Amino acid sequence: MRSRGLWMLLIAVLAGLAAVLLATQWMQGQGGDKGRIAVANADIELGGRISSEMVRMTDWPRDSVPQGAFIDPSRLHGRVVLTALQRGEPLTEARLAPVGAKAGLSAVVPEGRRAMTVRVNDVVGVAGFALPGTYVDVMVNTQAEGGQRGGDRDRSISKIVLERILVLAVAQEADRDSTKPKVVNAVTLEVTPRDAEVLDLARSVGTLSLVLRNPSDPLSTPTAGATKSELLGTAHAEAPPAKPARVVKQVPPRPAAPAAPATPAPDGATADAGKTVLLTQAAADATPLPPRACVEIVRGLTKVTECF
User: Fold this and answer.
1) Facing residues of 81 across strands?
2) pLDDT class for 11, splitting at 50, 70, 90?
3) Does 121 have pLDDT greater than 60?
4) Quick one: pLDDT at residue 153?
């Protein structure tokens, strides 16, 4: 009986070993073949140069090797990273600047773009929330052109001049993984050559402000700018136009009709005829004559009235 128990124990141990061996082989088969690729051995900042101590080789499943991964760590020596990398992340060609690029922010600026720095404070810099990797709009407050009609006026205007501008760095830091607000005195923006000209002009003619926006919002919103009269709800009255000289058109008086020749009348009708003539002459004298046409002419400081 005792030997039988030992045989049963031995069979159980062998069965367990066989099960472990089969399970190991099955798991290895599920994982597939593995290769070795280069990964970051330490955190690497954006624009940093890779040294041999920053790279190590590690096993990686062949069917999930990232495109552009390196199997030779010597090819990474001296390369500059375009994005911040954390320890254990694979190093790929897409995350590196071209061979020979110098370390620093210049290697991060894409082709056809420029990096331009503007001076800010805690208010202009959105209380320190304008961090590397965020997008902002640039607004300028200045004096609008257009003359001073109607007297002296305040022509202040605030206008958004650039939209969806990427923040490359704040002060001398370009780490995009940080989310803690940083109040700095300078912000570096990624702009096109045309945007660089607009930004330089804007900061020379007025005061700049940064407006933080959602990075997933690509739409542009054209605006006409806000003026002080719109802010206060007031409108400036326009100066009344100068009145032209008044010209009075009158009809010249008509000549009086010639008197009819006297005809002999009877004695009884002589008095009546004389009375009729007097009444007719009085009515003619009582009729007002139409006024003549007069024009006021102003020559310098002298005013002259001429009638026709």
Assistant:
1) 96
2) confident
3) yes
4) 54
In one-letter notation, the amino acid at residue 277 is V
For residue 44, count CB atoms less than 10 angstroms from its CB and return exposed for 0-12, middle for 13-18, buried for 19 or more.
buried
Contacts within 8 Å (CB) and 24+ apart, 93-101: 93/68, 94/67, 94/68, 96/50
Mean per-residue pLDDT of the chain? 78
Torsion sign (Cα): 102, 105, 108, 109: negative
Comparing CA positions, the residue from 84, 94, 98, 92 lying closest to residue 60 is 92
* Mean pLDDT computed over 265-287: 49
Confidence category of residue 15, pLDDT binned at 50, 70, 90: confident
Taking the domains of the chain in order of start, what are their residue ranges?
A: 30-108, 111-232, 269-307
Domain covering 30-108, topology = Type Iii Antifreeze Protein Isoform Hplc 12 (3.90.1210)
E strand or H helix that includes residue 229: helix 228-232
Strand residue runs (E) in 62-153: 114-119, 135-143
- In contact, 100 and 170? CB cutoff 8 Å: no
Instruction: Give the separation between CA 287 and CA 265, rounded to whole angstroms.
Output: 29
- Report yes or no: 59 and 65 within 8 Å, Cβ to Cβ: no
Per the CB < 8 A criterion, the answer to whether 122 and 106 are in contact is no
Position 173, amino acid: E
Q: Is the pLDDT of residue 241 over 60?
A: no
In whole angstroms, give the CA distance from residue 179 to residue 290.
92
Are 202 and 148 spatial neighbours (Cβ–Cβ below 8 Å)?
no
Largest CA distance in the chain: 194
pLDDT at position 147 is 46
Alpha helices in 32-153 (DSSP H): none
